[in-house]
């Protein structure tokens, strides 16, 4: 059996989720309906979105009241970013490197009436964001499975699952601090499918520390996976 950390296993999960004939155009989660476009990471075929919503306290229709600004890197369908806006964040930016995900997040923001507070932007991490914009919370539910550095994505959907050479994780760690408000927090949803040693090395390169804030053990098919919400701390700019 392939290890839980195997990138081949994750690519197979991507292939199956993308190609399912019963993949719906609309799904229900947290008591609400959400558009699901082709080629976008489907929260219904992986427990990570549900775990992230719980970690952030956004899992209930009337979650914790919030305020301030929220940047979601890798928004997928936009369910987390839209839930943050519905929970009270007054400015939400949802980015994804997959253009279909950006369209999906915009559709779900309109569906739930928060299009005035949520901007969906096509961006590779922070590249297309206004350099002057700062956020109180930066959150990424990452493609935490490490693939070999030379692996080339076969389609945009695979970007939700694996990170070749952990390049995107290292860039995220290096670039996120400069986008924070004073007192802002960087949060990463990670799991034991991920390369924790690689993440720690990346954090050390930037003089950062990682603090696990929440954990949840979830049975995923034949394996038990620990999901965690990690705060990246240590560099203020
Ligand atoms: C595990 S999925 C999470 C999607 C969504 N947040 C959710 O929880 O349902 C990871 C997301 O990160 C996006 N992603 C991967 N690399 C990225 C990058 N360099 N810049 C922006 N988004 C990226 C993927 O396209 C994917 O939508």
From TrEMBL:
A Pfam family annotated for this chain is PrmA
Question: Does the entry feature the keyword Methyltransferase, yes or no?
Answer: yes
Highest taxon of source: Bacteria
Which CDD domains does the record associate with it?
AdoMet_MTases (cd02440)
One term of GO molecular function: S-adenosylmethionine-dependent methyltransferase activity
Question: Listed GO cellular component terms?
Answer: eRF1 methyltransferase complex
Q: Which keywords label this protein? A: Methyltransferase, S-adenosyl-L-methionine, Transferase
* Statement: the UniProt record of this protein carries the keyword Methyltransferase: yes
Biological processes annotated in GO: methylation
What is the name attached to this protein's record? Release factor glutamine methyltransferase
Query: What organism is this sequence from?
Result: Kutzneria buriramensis
